[in-house]
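Internal tracking record. Fields below are filled automatically when a chain is submitted to the structure queue. Please do not edit lines marked as system-generated. If the sequence contains nonstandard residues, flag them in the REMARKS field before resubmitting.
Queue: standard
Priority: normal
Entity type: single polypeptide chain
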Amino acid sequence: AGEMVDYSSVSFWDSRYETGPEHARGTFDWFPSQGQRDPVLEALESRGVDRSGRVLDVGCGNSVLCKQLCQDGYMRVVGVDFSGSAVAAMQEHHAKSSGAD
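SYSTEM-GENERATED OUTPUT FOLLOWS
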């Protein structure tokens, strides 16, 4: 049997974003769109969320969602994650996106 992974551990996620598959790919998304519109964007749009309102991506990791939200016209996007390595990777990858914090 395999070793139990502690997904609640900051060190697990820091290591994963520093050396794991997410690091190698540059980004990782739990809901990959595979060329289709992201389901989170679809949900925001279908619910009429105002593009000038605040959007919080909790557990953002190094996802492209914050960048996609900015590109889709959302102006106040914040991504947070308890892994400092994930946040640093996201900031570096999306440094040129306006509106994302």
